[in-house]
Amino acid sequence: MVEALVWGSAVSGPLLIGAVAGALLPMWERVATTLAVFGGGVLLGALAFDLVPEAERHAGAWLTAGGLVAGTLAFLAGDWLLTREKNREELRRAMQAGTYGGRAEGGKSEEAGRGKSIALGVFMDGVPETAALGITIAEGAIAVPLLAGVVVSNLVESYGASEPIVNAGYSRRYPIVLFAGIGVALMVAIVVGATLLAGASDRLIGTAEAIAGGAIFATVLVALVPHAFAEVSRWAAVSAVLGLVLGYVLS
Q1: Are 245 and 172 in contact (CB under 8 A)?
Q2: pTM of the model
C-alpha cells in the first residue's frame, strides 16, 4: 500500500507541477505547443514499444485490438460531450456575424476546448495505465519504462493543456484544480491496481492496457497534432519524433 502511494505520487505529482507552471508561468504559445506535442510523441513511443506489446502478451491479439478501438471511441465520445456546447455557440456566433456583417471570434473557446480535450485524454489513458502499473507493483516488477513515459508525458501535457485554458479566460486556479483532481484519480487507480486487482487475470490486465492505448492514440490525433501543425508547422513533426525516440529509449 505504501509503495503504491509512493509510485502514485510519482505519477500524479508531475501533473500538478505542469498545471501550476502552465497557469502561472505561461510561455510563448509556439513553445507550449511544441512541448505538448513532444509529450504526445513520448506517449506514442510508450504505446508502440511498451503498452501494445504488453497488452498482446497478456490478452492476445483480438482483445488488444478490441481494447484499442474501445479506448479510441471512448475518448471521442467524451471529447464530443465536452465540445458540443462550444460548437453550438460558435455556430450561433457565425450566424450572427453573417447577419450583422461582423466577424465571429471563436478562438478562445477553441483554446479552452483543446486544453480540456488534453485533460480528458490524460484522465482516460492514465486511469487504466496506472491501474496496470499498480498490478506490476503488487507483482514486484514495476514497469519502469512505462512509468517514465507516463511521468514525462504527464508533466508536459498538463502544461500544454493549462496554458490554453488560462489564455481562454478561465481563472489560473481552474487548470490547477482540474489536474489535481485527475492526479487524485490516478493515485486511487494505482492503489486499486496494487491491492484489489492484484492477481487479476491476464486478459483483464491486457484489455485495460489496450483501452489506455486507444485513448492515448486518440488524444494525440485529436487534441495535439492538428493544433501543433497549425501553430508550429513542420517543427511540430520534429518535436513529436524526438518524443517518440525518447519513448523508444525508455522502453
Answers
A1: no
A2: 0.75
